[in-house]
Design goal:
- The protein is of the alpha+beta class.
- 33% of the residues lie in helices and 29% in strands.
- It contains 10 helices and 11 strands.
- The strands form 2 sheets. Strands 1, 2, 3, 4, 5, 6 and 8 form a 7-stranded mixed sheet that branches. The protein has a 4-stranded antiparallel sheet with strand order 9-10-7-11.
- β5 and β6 form a beta hairpin.
- α1 packs parallel to α2.
- The radius of gyration is 19 Å and the shape is globular.
- The protein binds adenosine-5'-triphosphate.
- The site of adenosine-5'-triphosphate has 20 residues, from α1 and α2.
Length: 293
């Protein structure tokens, strides 16, 4: 096999809690993760000569992303070739559909898809666990992006417990134009005995019980408070999504993307159209939960 096409799925955090700061600068987290159908597509071609090339699949693909050795797909390929001394190299063309720096793990997912794709192209037969150990060197979300589905992520995000698939929802994603730095958000996160934390237990119980309403009511993200200081429009977007019929609303990751969970595709599209029609400085997307099984 010389070519392989790999989807790289976006994720949402249905719950994101930070338990403490570690002396090494990492944070101990507890996150309920959910894959989305929205995905990038990576076209990997094995080359005879060694070396890695990462290119946009189409000229209109996101110009804000670095298409050189800083690209996470490049870094994943580099790590793979350093770890497994196989013959040849790879060219990776990425059709970028996941908005970058949005809290949707677009970069981590491209890294995960690259590792999976190279494992198949070069017949290295690595297990999921081996790929996850390698992926963790690239980012805390990469092991989850290799697993996919509904899962609890603990530790720095790498300790994963697969869960039964969450009750299905359509999702309207609203990305404000304000960029948010993940570093800033974590630095401005207040962690004191008075800080209120998301009810992750309730969200986990809702997944186990397959209780849609309870799941929608248990969404929570401790990073919303510091994100609101930089991007106050998050509050208005959430309120509008609720009045448009969303069962639950939340910011994903370190933001700034806000999602609304809808029971029907029509309601989800209607909400996205509302944001376009009312001239918000936002970008809207409609997608739905993805179950890899
Ligand atoms: P997370 O949810 O894991 O925190 P994110 O969705 O907030 O991630 P990404 O889309 O992964 O953010 O992008 C983070 C940064 O990584 C961007 O500023 C971008 O320049 C860089 N980057 C490197 N490679 C990629 C890639 N293949 N796709 C997207 N961004 C990339």
């Amino acid at each position: 096999m010389n070519n392989i096409t790999m989807p790289a799925y976006a994720k949402l955090n249905l719950c994101l809690d930070v338990l403490n700061r570690r002396p090494d600068g990492y944070h101990t987290v507890r996150m309920l993760m959910q894959s989305l159908k929205m995905h990038d597509t990576l076209y990997l071609s094995r080359t005879e000569d060694s070396g890695i090339t990462v290119i946009p699949y189409a000229p209109e693909n996101d110009p804000s992303i670095p298409w050189d050795e800083r690209n996470l797909a490049y870094q994943a390929a580099n790590l793979f070739f350093q770890t497994y001394p196989v013959k040849g190299g790879v060219q990776i063309a990425i059709d970028k559909q996941i908005p970058a720096a949005a809290g949707l793990a677009g970069g981590s997912s491209d890294a995960a898809a690259t590792l999976k794709g190279l494992n198949a192209l070069f017949n290295t037969n690595c297990s999921l666990e081996e790929l996850q150990q390698l992926g963790l060197k690239l980012g805390a979300d990469v092991p989850y992006c290799l697993l996919l589905g509904t899962a609890l992520a603990e530790g720095i995000g790498e300790q994963l417990t697969p869960l039964p698939k969450a009750p299905h929802f359509y999702c309207t994603l609203i990305k404000p134009s304000t960029g948010i730095s993940t570093k800033y958000i974590y630095e401005h996160l207040e962690l004191s005995p008075d800080t209120s934390h998301p009810d992750t237990e309730a969200a986990l119980a809702a997944v186990t019980a397959q209780d849609r309403q309870m799941l929608a009511a248990s969404l929570g993200n401790i990073l919303e408070a510091p994100a609101l200081t930089l991007c106050p429009e998050i509050k208005k977007i959430k309120a509008d999504l609720i009045s448009l019929g969303a069962s639950g609303v939340l910011m994903t990751g370190s933001g700034p993307t806000v999602f609304g969970l809808f029971e029907t595709k029509e309601a989800s599209f209607h909400a996205a159209e509302y944001f376009c029609a009312h001239n918000y400085p936002t970008t809207s997307f409609v997608t739905e939960f993805y179950d890899p099984s």
